[in-house]
Amino acid sequence: MEDIGQYIEALIFASEQGIRMEEILYCLQAAFEHDFTADEVNAHIDTIRAKYGENQYAIEVVKINNGYQFLTKKKFHPVISLLQLQRSKKKLSQAALETLAIIAYKQPVTKLDVEQIRGVNCDYSIQKLLEKELIAITGKAESVGKPILYGTSSLFMDYFGINSITELPQLKEFTESTSTIGEPSE
């Protein structure tokens, strides 16, 4: 029989979340029409974990929530978080920034409130901000239909380098005319 360890390694690698023992057994038994035991699979997983435990690899197999997953080793987390932060900063559109600003200053706020301020549909921007985890659902409003309330997340604080919402620039700081064109009138 082929090297089952490689198939187990491929299953763990291909799984977006941790893959449970039952899922591994199901896939192997369906593919090879052979009854594998959890002990057999565990032996292969131990071999895979030992292999990736060596210093030459930046990843390792970790058991999380009763499943196995490939993760970056902890010593590389600072560099990976810089990459993720840089990528997420690059991809915020003007519409997403405007939506995020409204949510940050008016939170908790409904989608309808945001749309009334912006004057356009905000479904896409809100969805993207939720995907990037810059905003979060904070509850439901007590108004008719109980619309979802949105607020900023802890990742928002990291993203903008602040400790709390009170550190956001005050709106009056934006409206003060510090740079004017022409002579000031008397």
Low-confidence stretches: none
Q: How many E-type strands?
A: 6
The domain count comes to 2
Total count of helical runs of at least 4 residues: 9
CATH hierarchy class name of the largest domain: Mainly Alpha
Question: Tell me about the biggest sheet?
Answer: 3 strands, antiparallel
User: What is the CA–CA distance across the termini?
Assistant: 92 Å
Order of helices and strands: HEHHEEHHEHHEEHH
InterPro entries: ScpB_csome_segregation, WH-like_DNA-bd_sf, WH_DNA-bd_sf
Protein name: SMC-Scp complex subunit ScpB
Keywords: Cell cycle, Cell division, Chromosome partition, Cytoplasm
Pfam families: SMC_ScpB
Structure, explained:
This protein has 186 residues and is an alpha+beta fold. The chain has 2 domains: 4-75, Orthogonal Bundle (Arc Repressor Mutant, subunit A), CATH 1.10.10; 89-175, Winged helix-like DNA-binding domain superfamily/Winged helix DNA-binding domain (Arc Repressor Mutant, subunit A, Orthogonal Bundle). 51% of the residues lie in helices and 15% in strands. It contains 9 helices and 6 strands; from the N terminus they run H-E-H-H-E-E-H-H-E-H-H-E-E-H-H. The protein has helices spanning 4-14, 21-32, 38-53, 77-90, 94-106, 111-118, 123-131, 154-160, 171-175; strands at residues 19-20, 59-64, 67-72, 109-110, 135-140, 148-152. A 3-stranded antiparallel β-sheet has the order 1-3-2. A hairpin with a 2-residue loop joins strand 2 (59-64) and strand 3 (67-72). Helix 1 crosses helix 3 and helix 5 (94-106) crosses helix 7. The model has no long low-confidence stretch (mean pLDDT 87).
